Amino acid sequence: MYTINVIDATRILNSRKDFILLNIGNDNKITDYRLTNDLARFRGHYETFRLVEVIKKEIHNGIKIF
Fold this sequence. Notes:
The protein contains three helices and five strands.
């Protein structure tokens, strides 16, 4: 489970992109992310990636929002 702020959660929920690439800090906060359809282009710049649809479900099911 990740911790994100309200603005980022809104951006993710309204996104029509397929992938979210993430850098996650030690306290499970998302420190940096990119919403994209081109996974191969940005894959090397981020630690992990997820499908945006999965993150949207996590937001609805109780992702920590600060």
